[in-house]
Write a structure and sequence with these properties.
mainly alpha; about 85% helix; about 0% strand; globular
Length: about 160
């Protein structure tokens, strides 16, 4: 059988599904270790765009958080996929590129987005806090999206 090359939207969809789900599972496990329920994790994500409403809205707040999570992940994946399509050399070093992109996403999310959205937020600088955030962004997000992009865009 010949190689099948997928479309950019299909690649983004697959990358979002895999990376988004792995990231969410990672968040649920790490937050669960700290005593936060899965619905609490999702409501916390929803509080970004929806504020206290999401935190206090029960299952509906969790649904808003779930949709928010996958919307953000779609943007993250689309950015990588479009860059890889325009600069195919990225796919030659997909593992390195994915891990590096994960570090970039970590910096953007924890050191720019969250402090801007929640002024009282202070990024964790202890080994455990940084380690689980980097694990999530590099291993659960950046790496799988890069490998999916390589597989789907190269066939």
């Amino acid at each position: 059988m010949g190689k099948t090359q997928h479309t950019i939207p299909g690649t983004i969809l697959a990358g979002t599904a895999v990376s988004g789900t792995l990231d969410l599972l990672s968040a649920v496990v790490f937050a669960g270790m700290a005593g936060t329920s899965p619905l609490g994790v999702l409501r916390s994500v929803g509080s970004g765009p929806f504020g206290d409403w999401a935190v206090n809205a029960g299952a509906l707040g969790a649904l808003a958080g779930l949709l928010t999570h996958y919307a953000i992940m779609t943007v993250m994946v689309a950015t990588f996929v479009i860059a890889a399509k325009r600069l195919p050399k990225i796919l030659d070093g997909a593992v390195f590129a994915g891990l590096l992109y994960g570090v970039a996403l970590y910096i953007i999310m924890y050191w720019i987005v969250l402090p801007l959205r929640f002024p009282a937020y202070v990024p964790k600088t202890d080994l455990w806090g940084m380690g689980n955030a980097l694990f999530s962004h590099c291993i659960c997000v950046g790496l799988p999206m890069a490998l999916i992009a390589r597989k789907y865009l190269r066939g």
